[in-house]
């Protein structure tokens, strides 16, 4: 029989994890190959050029562009302070003098006698790239960054928001079908990554942010609450750059969905461990999954779990739909028709029939599902 293959979420108790830590522009790498790092260690630094401000100097001073340098008190490359005088006219009557003040603290970059403009640049902004995971540097890319490797438990979620964070893992519920309510979040959870069960409401996230929780891992979340959390409707761009004061990863989908037992048990057995997480998600081409990485630190034994995509799909397998209108819904494969079929978009694709827990079924293109661990 012909097998159909599909990518799935990775859930491994013990596996090799590599992380590419790269600067957005050329800079300095401050570690070397073989260094053993902590997640909080800085691996590379660079300086992002400051914002440029343009001043139409000749209009303000009432002079010709070719005369501009004669009236300047500063030259190119000089440092200036905000509201410092950088140019002035020289009238016979001092009361008629016009001065030009710097709008920023920075440097004089360009004085143009052609356009009559002065360009000032704000100070460069330092950028630091952290290791993100405890591990060993296995490769150094000069002026760019490093590759770090570690042995860790590795869990991918289906969706997330918020960037990279590191903290101690803590269980906030007892069972994978529990709802993570505000009452379950305590001051002791400050600076920790907490694990919920089937669902979390917006008020619980608000309390978590006030308490100082760094991250939340939970089975499901309401898409309406997502808009409240972000303050806007999420588009199709990659997530992870949201400045919301917390990182949220959902492992199952939108709605109240029990966290997969294997995922919950893996997180529970690693409670108290140092954990790295990143909510960055992209569900279109170039798929990016939110991730949870729990370094083993050489004290936990185990073996790498089978990856969901290692065998073909079969009737009865658990799957998750990863496209609308059934996005996030979990079910079991009911049938796997072999011939391609026409779907509503008028495309001809291979499909499968999914049966959901409530007994309803749906015909879904095979490319719109992923296998999951149960």
Description:
The protein is mainly beta and 374 residues long. It has 3 domains: 11-18 and 150-295, Glucose Oxidase, domain 1 (3-Layer(bba) Sandwich), CATH 3.50.30; 52-121, Beta Barrel (OB fold (Dihydrolipoamide Acetyltransferase, E2P)), CATH 2.40.50; 313-371, SH3 type barrels, CATH 2.30.30.50. It contains 5 helices and 29 strands. The strands form 7 sheets. Strands 1, 3, 12, 13, 14, 15, 17, 19, 20, 21 and 22 form an 11-stranded mixed beta sheet that branches. β23 (318-321) and β24 (330-335) form a beta hairpin. The radius of gyration is 28 Å and the shape is elongated. It starts with 10 loop residues before the first strand and ends with a strand. The model is unreliable at 1-6 and 304-310 (pLDDT under 50).
Annotation, overall tally of beta strands: 29
Instruction: Describe the main β-sheet briefly.
Output: 11 strands, mixed
Low-pLDDT sequence parts: 1-6, 304-310
Mean pLDDT: 88
Please give a handful of descriptors for the protein shown:
Glucose Oxidase, domain 1, OB fold (Dihydrolipoamide Acetyltransferase, E2P), SH3 type barrels, 10% helix, 29 strands, elongated, eleven-stranded mixed beta sheet, mainly beta, single chain
How does the SSE layout of this entry go?
Layout: E1 11-22, E2 28-29, E3 36-37, E4 42-48, E5 52-56, H1 57-61, H2 68-71, E6 79-80, E7 85-88, E8 99-101, E9 106-111, E10 117-121, E11 125-130, E12 135-141, E13 145-156, E14 159-161, E15 164-171, E16 179-180, E17 192-195, E18 199-200, H3 202-211, E19 215-221, H4 223-230, E20 247-254, H5 261-269, E21 274-278, E22 291-295, E23 318-321, E24 330-335, E25 341-342, E26 348-349, E27 351-355, E28 361-365, E29 369-371
Parallel strand pairs: 15-17, 16-18, 17-19, 19-20
Antiparallel strand pairs: 1-13, 2-4, 3-12, 4-11, 5-10, 6-9, 7-8, 9-10, 12-13, 13-22, 14-20, 15-21, 21-22, 23-24, 23-29, 24-27, 25-26, 27-28
């Amino acid at each position: 029989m012909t097998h159909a293959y599909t990518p799935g979420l990775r859930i491994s108790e013990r596996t090799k994890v590599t992380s590419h830590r790269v600067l957005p522009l050329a800079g300095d790498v401050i570690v070397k190959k073989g260094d053993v790092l902590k997640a909080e260690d800085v691996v590379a630094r660079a300086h992002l050029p400051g914002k440029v401000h343009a001043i139409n100097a000749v209009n303000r001073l009432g002079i010709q562009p070719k005369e501009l340098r004669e009236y300047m008190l500063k030259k190119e490359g000089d440092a200036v302070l905000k509201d410092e005088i950088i140019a002035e006219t020289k009238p016979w009557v001092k009361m008629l003098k016009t001065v030009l003040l710097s709008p920023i603290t920075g440097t004089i970059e360009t004085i143009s006698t052609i356009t009559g403009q002065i360009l000032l640049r704000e100070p460069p902004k330092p950028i630091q790239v952290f290791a993100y995971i405890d591990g060993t540097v296995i490769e150094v890319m000069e002026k760019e960054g490093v590759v770090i490797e570690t042995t860790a438990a590795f869990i991918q979620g289906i969706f997330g928001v918020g960037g990279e964070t590191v903290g101690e893992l803590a269980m906030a519920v007892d069972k994978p079908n529990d709802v993570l309510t505000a009452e379950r979040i305590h001051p002791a959870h400050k600076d920790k990554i907490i694990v919920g069960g089937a669902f979390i409401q917006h008020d619980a996230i608000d309390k978590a942010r006030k308490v100082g929780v760094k991250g939340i891992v939970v089975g499901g979340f309401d898409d309406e609450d997502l808009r409240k959390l972000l303050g806007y409707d999420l588009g199709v761009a990659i997530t992870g750059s949201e400045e919301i004061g917390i990182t949220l990863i959902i492992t199952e989908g939108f709605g109240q969905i029990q966290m997969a037992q294997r995922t919950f048990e893996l997180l529970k057995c690693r409670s108290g461990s140092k954990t790295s997480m990143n909510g960055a998600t992209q569900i279109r081409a170039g798929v990016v999954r939110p991730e949870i990485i729990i370094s083993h630190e050489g004290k936990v034994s185990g073996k790498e779990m089978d990856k969901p995509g290692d065998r073909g799909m079969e009737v009865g397998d658990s799957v998750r739909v990863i496209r609308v209108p059934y996005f996030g819904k979990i079910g079991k494969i009911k049938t796997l028709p072999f011939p391609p079929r026409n779907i509503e978009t008028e495309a001809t694709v291979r499909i499968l029939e999914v049966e959901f827990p409530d007994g309803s079924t749906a015909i879904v293109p095979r490319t719109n599902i992923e296998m999951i661990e149960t």
